[in-house]
Amino acid sequence: MTMRDGEKPAVHGSLFVVSAPSGGGKRTVLRKVLDRDGKAEYGVSATTRPPRPGEVEGQDYFFLSQDEFQRRIKAGEFVEWADVHGNLYGTLRSELKRVTASGRDVFLELDVQGMRNLRNAGIDAVSIFIMPPSLDALEARLRGRGTNDERDIAVRMRNAEAELDARKEFDYVVINDDVDTAVADVEAIVRARRLESARQP
Amino acid sequence: MTMRDGEKPAVHGSLFVVSAPSGGGKRTVLRKVLDRDGKAEYGVSATTRPPRPGEVEGQDYFFLSQDEFQRRIKAGEFVEWADVHGNLYGTLRSELKRVTASGRDVFLELDVQGMRNLRNAGIDAVSIFIMPPSLDALEARLRGRGTNDERDIAVRMRNAEAELDARKEFDYVVINDDVDTAVADVEAIVRARRLESARQP
Predict the structure, then answer these.
(1) What residue ranges do the domains of chain B occupy?
(2) A67: distance to nearest CA of chain B, Å?
C-alpha cells in the first residue's frame, strides 16, 4: 500500500498520433480537442522548408537546413521523417521527450506511413484514425473547399481510399460525421488513456 | 474498401468488469453509468441463495439449487464462481454471450479474485478498479453508512488494503473522489472501447 493523500503522479505524458485522409476534418477536430485540454499540446515538427511570413522557430516548426536535417537523420534523432515534394519533415525524439517528461501529452498529425514509421521505431503511441463518414462525404468536403481542381480531387480520392484501408492498423477509429461527436470521441480516448492503471501512481 | 453509407456494425458487445473495495462507491457509479447508457446492461449472476421478497428470476439473479449449480460448474458453464458464506455465486458463459451477441455491452461487478478467475479463463474483458480517494476517505464512508460495527469496519479496512494493492492488475483505475467525475471516467473508458478499430466494421 503506497496510497497517500495528495500524492502527485510521477507519470510521463502520452503520445497521440492522429491520421486522416486529406479532407477528413482532422485539423478542426484536433484544434477543438487541444483548445479544451489543459494537459496536451501539439508536437513541433522539424522541416527543411523555409519559414513562411509570421511562422515562429520552435513554435510552428524547427527550421533546419538540409545538411543539419540529414546529420540528425544519421544521428538517429528522428523517430519518423518523410520527404514531401523535396522538403523534409520529421519528428525529433527530443521534442517528444521534452513534452512527455513534463507529464503533458503530445499530439502528432502524421500520415499513415508516418504512423507506421513511428510504430516500427518502437515508440509507444496511441494511434487514432479520423475517418470521413463516407467517400461521398469526403469528396463533397474536398469540393466544398473550392481550392482543388478535378485532377487534384481524383488524386486525393485515390489516396484516401488507400488510407481508409489502413484504418485497422490504428488503435482507434473516429468517424467524423459530426464535429462535436468526433471531438468528444477523441476526448474520451485521451481521458481513458490517462486512466490506464499503468499510467497512475 | 468496404465502407458503405449506412452499413451496420456486426460487432459483438464488450464485457466490463468493475471491482472496488467495499465502500468504494462502485454501485452508485455504475448505476449512473448504466442509467445513461442505452447500449449496456448488468450481467445477471446465478446464485444458490434463496430469492428475497420481490426478487425476480432471470432479472435479479438466476436462482439455482446447489445440485444444479454444481452440475453447471462441472459442465464448465461458469466463467467464474465463488463461495460467499456458504452460498454460491457465479457468472454463466451463456449470460455473457446472450448480451454481447446482441451488440450490447455487459457489466459485471466482481471482487478482485473474480476478475482474476475471469482473466485466467481467457475471457476478453475491460477491467476497471474503482478506488476510494484514500483509505481515510474509505473509512469515513464505511462509518457514514452507520450499518457497520467497529470489528466489521476493521475487517473491511484490512480487505480494502489488500484489494487496493491489486489495482495494478486492472486495465483502468478510476478514483471515486467525486461521483460525477468517476461516472464520466467510466463513460470515457466505455466510449473509447467502442472506438477501438477492432470493434468497428
Answers:
(1) 15-199
(2) 40
B172 contacts in chain A (CB < 8 Å): 192, 195-197
Given a cut of 50, whether residue B78 has pLDDT beyond it is: yes
Q: Which residues contact A19 (CB under 8 A, 6 or more apart)?
A: A26, A109, A110, A111, A112, A114, A115, A127, A128, A129, A130, A163, A170
Q: Looking at the complex, does the CB of residue A195 fall below 8 Å from at least one CB of chain B?
A: yes
Q: In chain A, count of helices (H) and strands (E)? A: 7, 9
Query: Which pairs count as long-range contacts for B135-141, CB under 8 Å and 24+ apart, including other chains?
Result: B135/A1, B135/A3, B135/B160, B135/B161, B135/B164, B136/A5, B137/B177, B138/B21, B138/B23, B138/B24, B141/B23, B141/B24, B141/B25
- Compute the distance between CA of residue A187 and CA of residue A183 in angstroms, rounded to an integer: 6
Q: What is the pLDDT of residues A145-168, one digit of tens each?
A: 766 678 888 888 888 888 788 999
User: Considering only CA atoms, which of A156, A157, A161 is closest in space to residue B3?
Assistant: A161
Domain made up of A15-199: CATH architecture:
3-Layer(aba) Sandwich (3.40)
Nearest CA in chain A to B191: A188
B94 touches B77 (CB < 8 A): yes
Residue B91, beta-bridge partner list: B80
B65–chain A Cβ distance below 8 A for any pair: no
Checking DSSP bridges between strand A45-47 and strand B126-131, what pairing results, if any? unpaired
Mean pLDDT value across residues A94-100: 94
Q: Which three cell numbers stand for residue B9?
A: 456494425
Distances (CA, A) of B159 to B38, B135, B174: 34, 11, 19
Answer whether B120's CB lies under 8 Å from B79's CB: no
Residue B81: predicted pLDDT: 94
Please report which confidence band the pLDDT of residue A35 belongs to, taking 50, 70 and 90 as the band edges. very high
pLDDT at B147: 60
B180 φ, ψ (degrees, to nearest 5): -65, -35
3-state SS string for A21-47:
CCCCCHHHHHHHHHHHCCCEEECCEEE
Q: Rounded distance, CA B24 to CA B139, Å? A: 10
Q: Could you tell me if A192 and B172 are in contact, meaning their C-beta atoms sit under 8 angstroms apart? A: yes
- Spatial separation of the C-alpha atoms in residues A13 and A101, rounded to whole Å: 7
Instruction: State the ipTM, two decimals.
Output: 0.85
Distance from CA of A136 to the nearest CA of B (A): 9
